[in-house]
Design brief:
The chain is α/β, with parallel strands linked by helices and 150 residues long. The chain is 38% helix and 19% strand. Strand 3, helix 4 (85-94) and strand 4 (98-102) form a beta-alpha-beta unit.
């Protein structure tokens, strides 16, 4: 049975490809998701993706993930990285391993982006590699889940 992985994209990521391409790249969110689904097949993982600009929708998706038997989460919380205790609490509540992802190197940007509300409870963090950050996160998450015999 393949691993079930949920990929969550936070606010404004629906604008990928057009929003500040010098920072976030030219690839669209649809292209990122297509690549992740294909990579998931290669890694024997069933990948589902969801983007929302609304914190509550992301919290609901995290809570539903436990009921759906999701084995791991790749999350780019975007601006919610720095503010959302609700996302942190939801991730802690469901106890599903997750990797935090960022397209840009948040530590090379404004100082308010240096603080993550999720980092200390994440399995890992990958940032600064553009859309490749997602691929690296998916590979790392699948590897860790396989090591644990999930």
């Amino acid at each position: 049975m393949p691993l079930k992985i949920l990929v969550l994209h936070g606010p404004n990521l629906n604008l990928l490809g057009t929003r500040e391409p010098e920072t976030y790249g030219a690839e669209t969110l649809a292209e990122v998701n297509q690549h992740l689904i294909a990579l998931g097949l290669e890694l024997q993982a069933d990948v589902t993706a969801l983007q929302s600009n609304h914190e509550g929708v992301l919290v609901d998706a995290i809570q539903q993930a436990r009921l759906d038997g999701i084995h791991g989460i790749v999350i780019n919380p975007a601006a919610y990285t720095h503010t959302s205790i609700a996302l942190r609490d939801a991730l802690l509540a469901v106890q599903i391993p997750f990797i935090e992802v960022h397209l840009s190197n948040v530590h090379a940007r404004e100082s308010f982006r240096h603080q993550s509300r999720l980092a200390d409870v994440a399995l890992g963090i990958i940032a600064g590699f553009g859309s490749t950050s997602y691929s690296l996160a998916l590979r790392g998450l699948v590897q860790q889940l396989n090591k644990k015999g999930v």
